[in-house]
Write a structure and sequence with these properties.
Length: 181
């Protein structure tokens, strides 16, 4: 399937999920993700919105574990990550997303892991994002572990594009997919 066509169908499907499913599946995904982050000291992580996998509980856990947590903020066509020390460091920003209020972005090399949202994915850990390329652009600057969070129903077959950067792992409520290197 063409990636643009897949993105459109998968966004519609994700938007149609019930809040009960999103809450329950997100909780499962968060619990499966925690052990994968046990040895990670610094990570970038998105703040879930709408029917994306909810990450507030994972962010809270990371902060309580003493990890350095960086969240994204969009600036036009680019995205940077800023440190947060508590959830009060997040305010509504671009696209209505919760974004960090800090003034000093971290260096991409500061993060050992990137936790990112997905519109879709396949078993090879290729991913479909929102379509603006923010994560692809940013990930070209880092050599961190890349974790995608998604629901099993977001798995699809599609043709990847040359500029796309794959995830190392994708965690769903049912499986953990690992990219074969």
């Amino acid at each position: 399937m063409d990636k643009q066509e897949a993105r459109k169908k998968l966004k519609a499907m994700r938007n149609s999920l019930s809040s009960a499913f999103v809450s329950s599946a997100s909780a499962w995904i968060v619990e499966k993700t925690k052990p994968l982050l046990a040895e990670v000291n610094a990570l970038g992580i998105y703040v879930g919105v709408g029917n994306e996998v909810a990450t507030i509980d994972l962010i809270t856990w990371c902060l309580n574990e003493g990890k350095a947590v960086y969240c994204p903020r969009v600036h036009g066509d680019t995205m940077d990550f800023y440190p947060i020390s508590c959830l009060n460091d997040l305010k509504r920003g671009t696209y209505g997303l919760l974004e960090p209020i800090g003034n000093q972005p971290c260096q991409p090399s500061a993060m050992a892991c990137m936790v990112m949202p997905l519109v879709g994915f396949n078993e090879a850990c290729q991913r479909i994002g929102q379509g603006k390329g923010y994560y692809d652009k940013y990930l070209k600057q880092c050599s961190c572990m890349k974790l995608g969070l998604a629901y099993e129903c977001q798995k699809a077959e599609f043709t990847n594009e040359a500029h796309d950067i794959d995830a190392d792992m994708i965690i769903t409520e049912q499986h953990i997919y690992q990219r074969v290197k």
